[in-house]
Design goal:
The structure is a homodimer of 496-residue chains.
Chain A lengths: L2 H12 L2 H21 L11 H8 L10 H14 L19 H13 L10 H17 L8 E5 L2 H16 L3 H4 L8 E6 L5 H8 L7 E4 L9 H13 L3 E8 L11 H11 L2 E5 L24 E4 L12 E5 L4 H6 L32 H35 L2 E3 L7 E6 L8 H13 L6 E5 L3 E7 L7 H20 L2 H4 L4
Parallel strand pairs in A: 2-3, 2-4, 4-5, 5-6
Antiparallel strand pairs in A: 1-7, 6-7, 8-9, 9-11, 10-11
Helix pairs in contact in A: 5-13, 7-9, 13-15, 14-15
Chain lengths: 496, 496
């Protein structure tokens, strides 16, 4: 073989040691500067697709770039065309600042490139994940000897897994015969404020989105259990097969926790699988005085929890947990001659038979390394503080004449202008949001509560967000309101 | 708020700058040493679950570790309890050595933590991925103006996406009404040597594994098109609804490519969706003189391709590509009030409406940065060389009295001992594999071709694998064979 070609091949992907050292020096500097100087950056980028695309025009893979230039090019795109969700004044969806150990863990995972499909490829990685599954299951109140679970690409995959395990539990032939072999249509129940990944999962399971009964909410935005009971009875009377109730512990809109105890009771009475989507809110089980907020979750048959939310590990890390030790194996059991196995009587878990994925990244390491350094107590303090900053935001909003519409301990506030809370003026609120976001100084979103009431939404998503940041957000909101009051935007839109 | 608590909270997750600098110094050293000294490591670890678990017993999250200690603890587990798939003498499943730019990209993704669910959160990231989707679609022969696609967690998710898009295409009500609203059971076709993630996808879509017709293979291990045609006719006669043919371009067992042109013709004639799973083999479209191996793939309705295989980016990176520009939007369209949107007439893609995932990592950056440095030509050379090393392995095996059972250009060899190729003696081959792997000097797997014929399997998965490594593997195989011939292991197992 030609030595020159071999060298070129190595260089194309591996580079040489001098280049690697230079690149890593720059990368470590960039990460350090991003960490220390993040609060000086504009949060929201210029949102013009044409400009982003124009910046990518020079990319031509027929003409390779020098590694250092490729790095700078990428950094330029990332710095200019990215909503800096890591910023402490980003009050948006759940995109936390990543823990330092989490970033390091992801780097190690990339370099070692472990394969988690079968145990024998990555025994250390699989056992670390299984340890975390057991410990988190226990924190949620499961019997340690029974808990099983798997890391997922996020809450959507975990919720999808929940639907599949619930189907397999209710209909043992589901795996081989599918939905059409059943005597009637299975249906499931979730609050109308639940996460729409449940709808997507229903569609992806072949149930169809109409199989999802979106149950009306009560005045506190929680699933209305009376409506739920009536709907179940009605569906049964119509010959449908209820099989699953999904409770939400922390709605995306408003951080509302469904009445988990009552939902669990109904599920038990009706012999339905009870899943709790606590992708966001689940973290409070680590805080002793807040644990009661999720009371009843320990009776859930399965749980979704995303460490990449309140536990601040880099995206993505979801967890599906269950107290049924054999259900994942039943749901995903496949055999393949080419997959390496163990000649051992020891019980080990091959992940490709245990989850929706096949080859899989070592998702759990960033949680393991962050938790090893923070400890349970460190995490409890992080969560406690974030929620207390949320309480401060509530008081500051109310002090400035904003009306908070939701009641949540999870640090999310949905609010409107108190003097104009009558007209549901979404364009007025949108104009305020636009002002705040385009200032580059803070970032909030807008939503509709109960699918109808428009509200501004600000959420404490970052462990580095401090009272100063909250004050800056409220000042920015006040300024935007004054601006639109003065210029009569509200009046312009009263026809709405 | 208590300053002391704030500081503790920051420290628990962010650490201080001195600690971060020390940790990164160590991480960069470790990665450099792992890269340069990998060939000195034992490849396969001691496979004793009890030992791995014993090493994790000291983990106690009630007692946090110092960051440096947590790092060393993790490194120790990773070094000792990991099959070092990055090793050039790892001839196993498709777990490549990761490109240097790929590892750097993953580090940046972790630090910036971009959120790809909606365009406005990460315009740069989304546009980089869309650019790659268009360019790779074009490489596979799609019309650039029509190609669409999405990055996935791997080939399993891409195949799952293929089933869902095929169902949505065939049955427009599938999304809302599900499978039970159809007039009869949909069925699909894949070779019996195809990847079993198709079975898992069928189960996860609610079709059931029995909806998958595993079509017999011909002598060359390719899907038998006559059997396929007969089976389709038979299924139709029985009132079932064929909707999808999955061709495989590079079977996991033996690197075999199905007759894509003929499969495409049958699909067109029968009006079925034609998907090609080229998770592994797809990379040859980047090599002009090998492009013909995948002739016909340009007529596929959709394609699975895993950049984390032959393109050597860190796990995981899958691609689903399609020439139907609206099918992903139809398949995954969901609306959610809490998701931020664009007030713009510009066409942008919100990924949460475009794939199985919701919140998603920036999967494409590692491919973008690696490709930027290697260029199309660099990748072509990498692939060409790996396949030529595979040819060298074939000649070396044959020269040493091994009989190669498969015919593949993709650098995978399935082989038996030529003097004992009669008895299908899997325990004899397993003993040889065990010797090779337990030596720590090389790593191969064992499989069954056509679900019956046992064979040792060695695959060139690493761009750093050189003829020397191949010679070492063959020497190790020869030694193991001699050993078992001498000690009569073969005789012991003739009862099989």
């Amino acid at each position: 073989m030609d030595q020159l070609i071999e060298d070129r091949v190595t260089m194309a992907l591996s580079l040489d040691n001098t280049t690697r050292a230079e690149l890593w020096g720059r990368v470590v500097d960039v990460i350090e500067n991003y960490t220390t100087d993040i609060s000086k950056l504009r949060i929201g980028p210029d949102l013009d697709p044409a400009k982003v695309r124009a910046d990518l025009v020079p990319v031509n893979f027929d003409r390779p770039m020098e590694p250092a230039k490729a790095l700078e090019f990428t950094l330029d795109i990332l710095m200019r065309h990215q909503t800096h969700v890591v910023h402490p004044r980003y009050f948006g969806l759940y995109d936390p600042a990543p823990s330092a150990m989490g970033v390091i863990a992801e780097t190690l995972v990339a370099a070692f490139n472990p394969q988690l499909s079968v145990w024998i490829q990555s025994p250390g990685a699989v056992e670390i994940e299984q340890l975390l599954v057991r410990l988190f299951g226990e924190k949620f109140g499961y019997d340690k000897s029974k808990v099983d679970g798997t890391f997922t690409s996020g809450g959507a995959e975990a919720n999808h897994t929940a639907l599949l395990t619930a189907l397999t539990h209710a209909f043992p032939n589901f795996v081989s015969k599918g939905l059409r072999a059943l005597s009637s249509q299975p249906v499931l129940y979730v609050s109308s404020e639940g996460h729409h990944s449940v709808l997507k999962a229903a569609q992806s399971c072949g149930l169809g989105t109409e199989a999802v009964r979106e149950i009306e909410i009560d005045r506190d935005l929680r699933m209305d259990v009376k409506v739920l009971s009536a709907r179940i009875a009605n569906d049964k009377a119509e010959g449908l097969q209820p099989f699953l109730i999904v409770g939400t512990a922390g709605t995306t809109n408003a951080g509302v926790v469904d009445p988990l105890g009552e939902l669990g009771d109904i599920a038990a009475r009706e012999a339905l699988w009870f899943h709790v989507d606590s992708a966001w809110g689940g973290a409070v089980v680590l805080v002793s005085e807040l644990r009661h907020l999720l009371s009843g979750i320990e009776h859930a048959d399965s749980i979704t929890f995303d460490p990449h939310k309140l536990l601040s590990v880099p995206r993505s890390a979801g967890l599906y947990l269950t107290r049924h030790p054999n259900i994942l194996a039943k749901t995903f059991d496949v055999a393949a001659a080419y997959m390496p196995g163990m000649n051992s009587s020891e019980q080990v878990v091959d992940q490709f038979r245990h989850s929706l994925q096949w080859s899989r990244r070592f998702i759990g390491l960033k949680l393991f390394m962050t938790l090893a350094v923070a400890g349970w107590d460190g995490y409890a303090e992080v969560i406690r503080q974030q929620l207390s900053v949320g309480e401060y935001l509530r008081s500051e909003l109310e002090r400035s004449g904003w009306k908070v519409l939701n009641d949540s301990a999870l640090g999310v506030l949905c609010f409107v202008d108190r003097t104009h809370d009558d007209g549901a003026l979404s364009t007025y609120l949108e104009a305020i949001r636009e002002d705040v976001v385009s200032s580059g100084e803070a970032w909030i979103s807008i939503t509709r509560l109960g699918k109808s009431t428009p509200a501004l939404r600000a959420c404490i998503v970052n462990y580095l967000t401090r009272p100063d940041d909250v004050s800056a957000l409220v000042a920015s909101l006040n300024k935007a309101r004054d601006n639109h009051m003065l210029h009569g935007h509200r009046g312009m839109n009263t026809k709405e």
